[in-house]
Write a structure and sequence with these properties.
The complex is a heterodimer of chains A (about 375) and B (about 450). By secondary structure, chain A is an all-alpha fold. Chain A has one domain: Amino acid/polyamine transporter I (Up-down Bundle). Chain A is built from 13 helices and two strands. Chain A starts with 5 loop residues before the first helix and ends with a helix. In chain A, about 50% of the residues are buried. The mean pLDDT of chain A is about 90. By secondary structure, chain B is α+β, with helices and mostly antiparallel strands. Chain B is elongated and about 100 Å long.
Chain lengths: ~375, ~450
Amino acid sequence: MKTLSTWQLYGLLLLFLLGTSVVFGIASTAKQDAWITAFISTFLGAALLWLYSKLYETHADKNWSGLLMVSFGRFIGSILCVAYVFIFIYSAGRDLRDIGELTNTFLLPKTPIGITMALFQILVSYICYAGVERMGRLAELNVPIIFIIFLLEVILLVASGTVHLSLLTPVAEEWKPIIKAAIPGNLTVPFAEAFAFAAFWSKTMAPKGFRKAALLSCATAGLIFIILDILAISTIGPELFARSLFPLMTTFHLVNFADFIQNIDPFIVTAFLIGVLFKITIFTYASCAMISDLWKVNVKSAVIPVSVIIFLFAFYMTESLISHLFTGHQWVTWVVFMPFYVILPMFALLIIKLKKMIGMGES
Amino acid sequence: MVQQSIRLSNWADLEQFTEELKRTLGSMPDLVFRSVGASLIVYISGLADQQRIEREIVDPLSANQETGSLFIKTPSVQMTDNYQQTVQAILSGMAAVAICGKDQVILANVAASPKRGVSDPQIESSILGPQEAFLEDLDTNIAMIRRITKSEKFRMKVWHFGSVAHTEARLLYFDQVAPDELVAEISKRLDSVHLEDILGSNYIAETIKDRPLSWFPTVQKTERPDVVSNALMKGRVAVIVNNTPIVLLFPFTFWNAFETVEDIYLSYSSATFLRWIRAFFILSALLLPSLYVAITTFHNEMLPTNLLLSIAASREASPFPALVEALIMESIFEAIREAIVRMPRILVQAVSVVGALVIGQAIVQAGIVSIPMIIVVSITGIASLMIPHYETTFAIRILRIILLLMAGGLGFFGIALGLFFTQVYLTGLRSAGMPYLTPVAPFVWKSLKNLIIRQPFERS
């Protein structure tokens, strides 16, 4: 059953891609050239999404679990499915922790992190319970809001007179950090993470529409990343940009419009919540969809248990924000994201294509 | 035992018929039996027009003692031999003419039941639009709609509800304009209604709307013939119930609640301007108190220093946290609002004095509630009066209180959470099969365009 329109899937993908990236800044290790990194990784991300859609095209009626069975056989396929369930749970848990830390830092310093995360995960379960169709409608409602807020932010920042484009120089002095920030860092988060849609893509749209929505949303997200990077670097300078935990928050902290609109960070953080909400929702739903495919149960019945596990993961995952971010940047990328979101899908695509070629040769 | 068919072959039968009627209806003072020659006229004096009976039935009958319906001048006449039908007809204001030697009764429609004249719309007033509203009388209401539309595609289906009140309800639609599924769906829902007594269209609205327990109205209630005609021409359907001046329209989406009748009577630029002003203030009606509470309680740093100082100074005297202040003021405002609706019209002045002076002035001087809170609640109150659709105001008001509580507990995070929950809830709501948030979600550009800017009428 294909339930979404192009615009709905575009919205879902766009909000997913913006997700946590707008909070933590994009490719900040590349300093003043972060925007070049964003540019490059957008292209690489688009290529990746295009390959995903090719993979989807081979069996338009099958989700990723089905494709795993086809390419690796029943036994290995099932084991990999279980692995994916936990990877999606882990990804959702990481993002939920991000929300908790962000809220704790900027909005509610006195409220225990467990409460905010639990409330947020209840909301996520509700959305997953509502299903893909309503998720699509929810995205449609929120995409215009995101666009308006983004436009407001840019206008306010530029009008505050804090943007100094000269801080962007020297441009591309060294290419090594630029590439290093793009691969794997910026490529995996957020672009490769969009592979989570594979877990339930047969419910969304036909492969053609999926590709269109994916490429369009990738381009939009890339554009937003580039603009935000340029604004952030030219406002706070490359050094602070690279060192800050939340570079974009530090940037918007400097908004001062006519001495009246100042310190709008609570507002900005609230706006960021929209993206992260969709990211966690998609991961949670992906995990539930995998479970439902594997054990032939209703997606809805998996929502509550999965949500509880995600919450526990998020709660006991790490001791502090710093170690949380360090884990994310250092080894999760190599151990989790690269093999499961990039290499395995490519491998599966290769196997399916080869099988088809052999099959054609025989007949 | 009530006899089913009527036999009137001789005088004795006529006598018996009279007795039977007296037994069924009771020998009431307003039940009139009148003999003219060999025939008997029965009617209820308040419901039937006595002058017409004189002119159209008695005169011809006494002028020509030959019997037969030919001599009755009433335009609407029917014959029946069914006793029950005769009783019903008398009760709805017709005159029954029983003639000796005939086995049938002539029912002449001379009904003139008491009704008021067409008056101004009270709930949905407009400045440049037509100034007429529906009445309690179903036939007049339908005539008003027909006068505006004059279409051969106009169709009606009829239902009757309740064994006692026997209230008539009709489904109105335009053939080939309203989608067949919509007509079938509403017909199916009306078929399944089993209500004993119906006093208003809300009885039907509440039983046939989607998710009867939801706060959000999924059916439009209007008192304006032009609104109903406009909706019918656009392919919506109307349910009209006798004895109610309020007509139901299906489907009704969330955004319909923010369109007024005035929109089509004003130039497109003024209509759009007003629509945007309304949108802004309705958003404030929903969010202003909770934003104020969230900012003063959790996010003080967002306010410019001067404003922060002046708010802090005026809040100094107040012993309550902002949330409690807001709840006090909100409930007082709701109380005044309800009082104004319920009390006798003559006393409105008194409430204005009490509301404005005693509460507005004294509550601040006593240091119970701070001035900024009064300002916030007043703006909110005025803004919530701008919502054109009366029932949506309740949804917004209830939601406002919930958001207020969330803001008091969790600041901006709470407001965002509350809004997200509402959004998810609304995405699942439907009105007669149509998703509640159409045309925004699902996205329909053609209608969305008209929602953002009232499109100018096309010239060609």
